[in-house]
Amino acid sequence: MEEFFSAAGYIQSVYKYKPQFGIILGTGLGQLVNSIEIDCSIDYTDIPHFPVSTVESHKGKLICGKIAGKNVVVMQGRFHYYEGYSAKEITFPVRVMKLLGIERLFISNACGGVNPAHEVGELMIINDHINLHPDNPLRGPNLDEFGPRFPDMSEPYDRKMIAQALHIARENNIKVHTGVYASVTGPNLETPAEYKFIRVLGADAVGMSTIPECLVARHMGIPVFAISVITDLGVEGRIEEVSLEMVLAAASKAEPNMTKIFEELIARQD
C-alpha cells in the first residue's frame, strides 16, 4: 500500500483537484488530450513507483485537467504484459487513480476484429470480455483496503454507460458495435487459426490490454466503460499482413468518433 500512497501523494502535490474520471488511452488514441483543459502534465518517470511506457506510440504522460467541466486524470500511454510488466505493475496506475478519487474509469484500445460484421476503422463498445492472460492482477494476497477477495464480475462494463454511449452514437450518426473483447499477451498478432479459435470462444475482437485494468477497477467498485477501435481484421479470407503504421492510421481515422463519445458521456454523468 505504501507504494500506491507514495505515487498518489506525488500527483496530489502537483495536481490539487480530485478527479472524477480516470481515462486510459490505447495505441494511437492519445489525441483525446487535445480536448482537455489541461491543468498539468506529469511524466511517468517523475511519479514514484510508476511503470514507464516502452511502446513508441505511447507517450508516457499523466494529463490532469477538465473535460466538459469534469475533473479527469488521463493516461496518455498505458502498459502491457508483453513489455515485461507483471499484471500488478500494469494495473498499478488504476490503484493510484482510485486513491486520487476517481469514480469511473474509461478505457480505450486498438484491436483486431474477428466478427465478420466489423470493418477497419469502426468502434466497438465492450459489453463483456474473455481473459486469455496467464496472470491475474488480483492473484496473491488480497488488498482488503481496496476490495473483496472474490470480486463479482457479473457486470464488468457498466450497462448504464453503455446505453448512454449508444444513444450518443445515434445522436451523432456514429456507427458503433457492441461486443465481447478477448485479451491475449502479445506482442505478436494472432495466426489465422488463433483468430478462428478466439471467434469460436465467443469474442468479437481481440487485443492485448484493457482486461487487467478492468479487473482491478471492478475489484475496487469502480464502474468501467471501454471502447475498442477495430484497426485490423482477423476474419477468415480477409486477414492481411499488418504493420504498426497501419494500426496507427486506422486508430487515427476512428479517434474523432471515439473522442466525441467519451466527451459526451463524461458530460452526462452526475
At the fold tier of CATH, the topology name is Rossmann fold
Task: Give me the secondary-structure category.
Answer: alpha/beta
At the fourth level of CATH, the homologous superfamily is Nucleoside phosphorylase domain
* Strand fraction: 15-25%
Measured distance between first and last alpha carbons: 30 Å
> How many distinct helices?
7
Report the CATH C-level class. Answer: Alpha Beta
Strand order of the largest sheet: 5-8-7-6-9
Q: Which stretches are low in confidence, meaning pLDDT under 50 for 5 or more residues running?
A: none
Query: Count the strands?
Result: 9
CA-atom Rg in angstroms: 17 Å
Q: How is the quaternary structure best described?
A: single chain
H/E element sequence: HEEEEHHEEHEHEHEH
Mean pLDDT: 94
Q: Give the CATH architecture.
A: 3-Layer(aba) Sandwich
* Biggest beta sheet attributes: 5 strands, mixed, barrel
Helical residue percent band: 25-40%
Number of domains: 1
Write down the overall geometry.
globular
Describe, in plain words, how this protein is organized in 3D.
This protein has 270 residues and is α/β, with parallel strands linked by helices. The protein has 7 helices and 9 strands; from the N terminus they run αββββααββαβαβαβα. The chain has helices at residues 2-14, 87-90, 92-100, 159-171, 192-201, 211-219, 244-267, and strands at residues 21-25, 37-43, 61-67, 70-76, 104-113, 123-131, 176-183, 205-207, 224-233. Strands 5-8-7-6-9 form a 5-stranded mixed β-barrel, surrounded by 4 helices. A hairpin with a 2-residue loop joins strand 3 (61-67) and strand 4 (70-76). Helix 4 crosses helix 7. The protein is globular, with a radius of gyration of 17 Å. The chain starts with a helix and ends with a helix. The model has no long low-confidence stretch (mean pLDDT 94).
